[in-house]
Amino acid sequence: MPLQRAVFPDGTGSIGLPAGWQMQNAQKGDLTAAGPNGEKLRFGWTIAVIDPTNPQSRALMGNSRGAAPGNFVAIPHSADSATAFKAAFTQLAQKARQQPPLINIAKVQDIPLQGGANEFMFGDIDFNDGKGKQYLVAQMINTQDSRWAAGR
Fold first, then answer.
1. What is the rounded CA–CA span in Å between residue 15 and residue 32?
2. Smallest Cα–Cα separation from 42: which of 113, 150, 123, 136?
3. 149: pLDDT strictly greater than 60
């Protein structure tokens, strides 16, 4: 099946989508698209993470609740990928005053990456939207900014 090229409106990227798929939002290299049977795609989403075990990160967190500021999430750099993925979704939902999704990671596949971690996760996710569980395939690339690593 040939892919249909879709260019991001802001010029930061393009993607090949199968027939029947529609780009819903695309900007700054981040894309959401929907398939004809309710499929969802999110590609290029960057989640800012601070490590609450790092003294410099704790200084940024500064508030008494121990929550990460703004759109950041607080996840220890040592957390495994499934735990980090679930924690990020839970914290982002809480910040949006929404119920966190139910996430089940059945398999994690490690792909070698110099200077970080690149992992695929397979499982299911339920956004509590009445649509039930959906199959989940997620790729998470973790890198550590060397400017912050020095404080460890």
1. 11
2. 136
3. no
